[in-house]
Each structure stands twice: as C-alpha cells, then as structure tokens.
Here is the input.
Amino acid sequence: MKRTTLALAAAGAAAALTLSACGGGGDTPGSDSTGGTVDPDEEITLTMTWWGNDDRAARYTEALELFNEEYPNITVQPTFSTWDDYWTARATEAAGNSLPDVMQTDLAYLSQFGNRNQFLDLTPFVDNGIDVSGMSDSLLASGQVGDALVGIPQSTNTLALFYNPATLESLGVDAPDAEQTWADFVDWSVAAAEAGASLDPQLYGTGDFTGVFWLFVQHLVQEGIEVFDADGQVAFSEQDVVDWLQLVAPLRDNDLFMAPEAVAQLEPLGGFTANLFATEFSWDNFLAGYLADSGAESLEMLPLPVGSTGEHAQFFKPSMLLSASANTQHPEAAAALIDFLTNDPEVGAIFGTSRGVPSSESARSQLSAEGADAQVIAFEEEWADVITESTPVLPEGYGSIEAEWLRLASELAYGNITVEEFASQWMSAAQSTLS
Amino acid sequence: MTTTLTDATPPTSSPVTQEDSDRLRQQAQGRSRLGSVAYHAFMVVVSLVVLYPAIWMVFSSTKPHAEILGSVSPFSPNASFDNYLTALQGIGGVSFWTFVWNSTFVAVVSVIATVASSAVTAYAFARIDFRGRGLWFAVMLGTLLLPFHVTMIPQYILFQRLGLINTFTALLIGNFLATSAFHVFLIVQFLRGLPRELDEAARIDGAGHLRVFTSIILPLLRPALITVAIFVFISTWNEFMGPLLYLKRPDLYTLPIALRLFVDQTTTSDYGAQVAMAVLALIPVAIFFFVFQRYLIDGVATQGLKG
Amino acid sequence: MTTTHPPATLTAPRPSQRRARMRETIAGYTFLLPWLLGFFLLTFGPMVASLYLSFTDYDLFEANWVGLDNYTGLFSDPRYLKSVQVTVTYVLISTPVKLVAALLVAMLLNARRRGLGFYRSAFYAPSLVAASISIAIVWKAMFVDDAAVDSFLQIFGIDTGGWVGNQDLTMPMFVLLALWSFGGPMVIFLAGLKQVPTELYEAAEMDGAGAFRRFLTITVPMMSPVIFFNLLMETIGAFQVFGSAFIISGGTGAPADSALFYTLYLYIRGFTDFRMGYASAMAWVLVVVVGVITVLLFKTSKGWVHYQGDSR
Here is the structure.
C-alpha cells in the first residue's frame, strides 16, 4: 500500500541520515604546516578549552588577557568543564572533526586522540613558534604519539606521600622514614591506626592507597616490571596485581581502614583533608588544594617508599599538556598561544603550581617562592636525584582502565569482591579495552 | 437483604432514601467534628514531613558551607545571604544570569512550540476524520510508553552530524514537532469534552478546518493550553538529560547543569553556594506552581480520569 | 420532505462524499504534519537506527558489524546484571509504595472539610520538582551522617552512620524519593474518588458493611480504571529514573553500583565509554521489557478493571 511504502521510505531516510554518521572521522592527518609565526595583521579567533573549577578558570582568564595584550589581533574564546565531562565532550567533537583550536590534555587520553590524527603535529613548530628550550628532552618526549609531537607538557608532578604533622602528634607517632620500604610503611600505618582506634574522632594511619592506579604503575616501575608493551597491551601479570593489593593486607584484614560508608559521609572532603587520615599518597601539586581544604597549618611531603631494589625510582609525569586540533584553521596562532601559556613568566606566576610545577624554566622564573608553591618546588628539587625514571608510554584506553581500577577498588573496599576477583576482573577488562 | 456491590454498575432501584442519606450524613458530621482536630493535626504533620526537604533547603542556603552537612537545626548563628552572593557570581566568568537566561530562553521557546504543535496535532486526532487516524493515534499513544533511551543515541548522532551540539536547537526541535505525546493526549482529552455542534455549525457554513481551528477551537482550548504551557515550562526548566548531552559550554548551560559545575572534585567545592543556587533554580517553578496550581491539578486529574 | 438517499451500506460512496473524505484526509495530514515529521525524524528513524547500532560496535568513529555480540555480552556483564537488579528492585518496591500512599492520602482528602486545598497543593508540589537536580542535591544532603534523616532515626536509637555511601541504604533512599512524589498519582486518585457516587457508600453502610469492606467492594472496582492508569504510568516512569540517580551517585552508580540504575548504566556505556552499540542494545532490551510489561498489564487488566459504560 502506498502509505506503507511512504512510511518505510521516510524511516529509511531518517535512519540513513543518522547512520551516515558512522564511518566518519579521522580522514586527513593534521595539516602539514611548516611552523612559523603569526601574521600580526590578521584578525584571528581561537577556541580553547580546559578542565578545572572556577579557581582555574579565573587563572586562565587572567593568562588569556595577557596573551591578548601580546597579540592584539588574536581573540581567544575559552570554554571549560569538569573533568568528568571533559573527555566526553572532546570525543564528541573529535568525531565531528571539530575539536577546539587549543585544548588542555592529559597523558591518559593522548594516544586515543593522537592515533586518530585528531591532534596537530607540533613538530614543525619546535623552536619555530614554540620555544621548548626551557624543558628537558625526556619531558618533551612524553607528548609524542608515534612520530608526531601532539602535546606540549605544561607542568610536571610526581607522586608524594603527604602527612599531617598535627594528626601525627594526636596519634603520638613519629613521621614515617623517607627511606622506608612499602612493608615498613604498612607496619607504620598499622601502628598509627592502632593508636588512633581509641581516639575520638577515630584516626587512621592511611586510606587504602592500593586503589590509586598511578601508584601501582609507579610501583611497577620501581620493581623494574614492564607496564605496557610495545603493542599497548598490559605487560604485567595478574599476580603482580594481587601482590600489590596484598601489600595492605595487615591493614585491610584487621579492619584498620576507615569504613567506606563513613568516608562517603565526608564528601566533598576525603579522609586526609578531613584530618582523619595521617597520610595520603597523591600528586605533589595537590598540596595547595589540600592545605585549603583541610585547614591544616602545615602538611609535609615525603617521596614514595623504596622498592625491593632499595631505590625510590620515581618518575615525573607531565600533569597536563596543551594540544592543538588537527583541523584548526590557524595553526600558527594556536602554536603561539601554546607557546605563551607554556613559557611566559607572568603566566607561570599566575598559575603557580596549581597545574603542577611549570615545565619550562622561564615559566618558573617568576614564581613567587611562597607558601605551597615554594614547598612543592623545594620538594622536587630536594628529591630530584631519585626522580629519575621516565613515564611509561600510555596506551589508548588508559583512561578507561584507570577508571575501572578505581571502581573495582571501591567494590573491594565495600567487601563485595575479593582481592583475587579484583585482579581477574580488572585484567579481563583491561585486555578487552586495550585490544 | 444485602445488596451485592461487586459489579460496577450502581443499583437501579436505590434502597437509600433521602432521609436515610440525611441521617447518615449527620452521623458522619457528628463524628467528624470530634475527629476534625485529629484529622487536621495528622494532615499538618504529614504536610510538614512532606515539605521538610524544601524547608531544609531554604534554611541551609543561609548557612556557611561547613555547617550545612550533618546538622538538623535549620537555624544557624551565622545565617547570612553570603551563599547567594557567591551563587550569583556565577562560575569562572559565566554569570548566574546567563544560566537564568539560558534556562528561560529554552523554557519559553519550548512552551510556545509545544503548545502550538500539540494543539494542532490534537485537533487533527480529535476533530478531523481522516483515513488512518486510528492507526496514527495508537502509534502516538505508543510513544507515550516508549522509553526515550532507544532514541537518545541516534538523536545525539544525528544532531552531532548536523553540527547542532552546543546549540539550543537540539533541545528545542522536538517541541516544534509535537514529540511529547503526554501533552497532545492531554489536549485530545480536553477536546473530546467540547461539543461537536460548534464545529459542525461552522463546517456547514463552509468554514474549512483551519478556520474552525483558529476561530472556534483555539479560544475554547485555553484552559488546556495553559495547563500544557505550565507543565512544559516546569519540566523544561528542570530538564537535565537533554542539556547534559547537548550543552557542552558553560556559557550555554541551563541552571541544572550549572549546578553541577559548582562542584569539581579536583579542588575545593562550595557546598553552601550549591544549595543557594539550587534554591534559586527552583524559584520560578515555585512561583508558577503557586500561581497556577489549579490548572495543573485539574489538568493532571483530567488526564487520569479519561485515560 | 423526504430525502431519498439509499442506506450508505448498500451503495458506493457518492463522488461528493468521496471528495469530502479526501478533503478531510488532506486536512488531517496537514494538521498532523509536524507530528509526523517529529515521529519519523526523531522517534521512528532513531529507533530503527538504534536497532542497527545495537548490532555494531559504534564508538562515534566507526561502526563494525558484530552481530549478536552486544546482546550476549549484556548477559555476561556483571554490571549490566547489577543494573537490572537495581532497577527491577526499585520498580517493584517504589511503585506499590507510592501508589498505596497516593490512594490512602487521596481517600483522606476525599472529605468535605475546610483547608483541603492547602493539603492537596502541599502534597502535589513535591512531585513537580522531585526529579530536578536541585532536589537531588538536597536529598543527598539530608541523608548524610547526622543530617535530618539520621538524626531522626537516632531518636529511636538507630544509628545508621549516614545513608549516603552505604550500599545497603541507597535503594531505600531512592524509594523514599519516589514516595515523596506521591502527589501526582494522588491528585488523579482524588479526582477518581470524587466521581464515585456517595449513594453506593451509604447503601453499603446501611447494609452493615464496614469501612474495609466498603473499600474493597466499592472503591477499588469503581476506581479500577484510574488505578490501572496510575499503575501503568508509574511503572513505566520508574524504569526511566535518571536525573536523581545521576546526581546522587555522582554519575557513577556509587557506592559500589548500588545506585547503578539501568538508564544510568546505559548513559555511562554510551556517553562516557562511547560504546554506543552496546548502549543501543541495552536500550532495545528496555523497550522490549517495557513493552512486554505493558501488554501484560493491559491483558491482566481485563480481569479487574471495570469501565463505567463507554466513555470513548
């Protein structure tokens, strides 16, 4: 009947329009620019985006105003979102080949977009629009995906063990030793938690740090175990996961961790920032945030416990990078913006260490050596000789396997799965995601 | 003899006389005078419990951020409107009034578009006898029962291919195309209550459907249209899923999404300002409700009775 | 004057009648045009597309045919099964609770007293905002340790230590939220109750039927169409809860997936992991399940729903 065919045709058309979406994306690789500088007479508008909260947004606004003074012909239209929404939005844009001209990126997602030629290859701009003389070669190399340089590291951080001196005093324990092993640290935490069990409010030595995926990766590096192989697959074994999780068995099995239900009540604070945990492992640039959240007078940092070789063997991780879209209409201007945000001393001063320690020497030069910023920089300088390893190259899909690890850690904390189940579930998820 | 009342039709010969009725009513009234106090006391308590979250919200918004969680007392020695000042500042350069404007714009356009398209569609179903009407009506009712998730992803892909992410178009276009069966149905039910003689008189005089619709039906539809308008306004104002999917830039956010932006896990979060903004976000809904509650309640009731 | 039209059933429609019908049909479809466009472009088309997608591994970049892998994958995915369990539990508990409360309160309001308008509005208002983000934020805050609910329970000696973050108390928290919005169905019940003729009750009372008997033999049958309508709409609505689940669980279904509602997991798979083929398969399973439940409800309704006359 005529009406039916008409209906089917309409449905088909609608479906076809929708499905023409499939199979798009990732056609032409990033424009082969030859680098160079911006034409000062051309009126250019750039779009830029980052993740963060309003504090970061305020800093970026200031930095972009400075940029506009330097390049009056370039207008930057910024947008931002929370971390949770950020990569979803970028993936959508990437699928439509419409990423913003400049964007803040993270190592975890660099391959995912780099492999699909979504990022501009900045190699032609090195020392020809983007000054990289102020940062080490190994740091710069972290922005490579394949043969292309797709991100310029903005800042670095490394993992640290934070402790709260006031909490230690309440517990009546000494600070952990900088040269302790992981087992030593667990013993120390047991003693601290036992001391804190009778206090009101109850204090704990630490939270279950085995849930921090980056810490696990760092530990593998310490032990000389390959993390990811050349094909981007998991190179370590399920047993390595179990061994790591069982490091804290003395704490977990003896109920010396704060119950997850109780920790959830502290939101938006965590155990450490609520001054209930004596220690926490985290990135060193989180110091300022911790001080603000906890209201503590002071917080101290130590390097990570040593591995079985007796070495700390830590690495610097680029805490964030700036990348440009492969489809940008203004590659030179985008490069100029990246260069400005990376190297300008006043920009460095604006951000302080809120994004991490600035990667470029010139950006560090005007950093006021005050407060949290000074402490972070001093920490890195003090322990520079043990921060010698290079960051593992992250495969595509790293972001999801990290999220899956976190989720399983929560299930473990709630007692829904065992350590062995954690290891096997994570391994199979990782294998299917990374293949 | 007991009257069996298990069938649904009222007994044809009523055994209840007027005197019986009066007597029962008086007995009931006597009882109710005694129970009136108890009744109202109970109802007031229930009302307070039901309204407690709203009360809590308003009072908490005046408290400093650290005192909100974990405290029951609505009153705080430090009560102030500081949270509102923070909330009104907006986030990262995007002012609060931008969010209000975005929400208002989306809501108002949605209302106009939905009212227009639903009225037109309802008129077709209720007043025009065209071939296939039964089928299409059944299909439309079917969409009422359809979980929207089955269209969510392809719609998203479609809008993305058309470059409509980060525009309000993606959010609004459905309203112009009467995609909400709930509202069409509401108007259809209302239309069925309007006598056909009016239409028929006009048709006999030679008026086409367009004339009948605009000159006769539309004016009579006013109560139903107002009801639809209010429902659409409130549901659009509160809508979360659509803006979550399609609005990716803070300067386009509507209030519900902006609320989320207040909390970013990477550094400090201001819970107090969040609650204040939550209150501000609900004020238009509250106003609409107070002013138009009759329409809403009657509209909902009509729906259910003839459904 | 008598007209001499033969009965319509015995002759073919006259040309003028056919033309009239044609005009009606054209008019009908003209008025229906927006809806038709919307239906094909935004409902039917996407439905067909999502059915196709459910057989692929589409991730916004490319789509490869994977046959039934997504569907079989669903049933071996522990998180999927968990989301089904969470959602079914929610539907099975919250719907009856909400409807019973709505009916009971409606009956309370079905009296000739003063001030009922106030109560009716007070009870109805929450249902307008229950699904909003503002309320989700507030709701979560009320269930934290030492907050309103916890303190109230402490009066009775129950210390829960906070419902938020407690995987066993998450579902009750959502059920209470559903219960809080009983006002919507309540208003409908109330309208239905007002239509039950009081003579029926009076007659039964005179015959010695107690309140409960009157309820069972008069109220329920007379209200059965309304009960059915509410049951249908609330059940379908319960399957589609999203906003509150998203906010209260922080978008992840936390703690430990106890708030991993079906729609939330669908969103996570589709828009966070970008496994859109998988999410489409989830959507279609939901459609089928809701469809089956709807058909079941309709079929079984014949047994207990009495329509008064024919109001259609």
Q: What stands out?
A: Residues 39 and 303 of chain B are 29 Å apart (CA to CA).
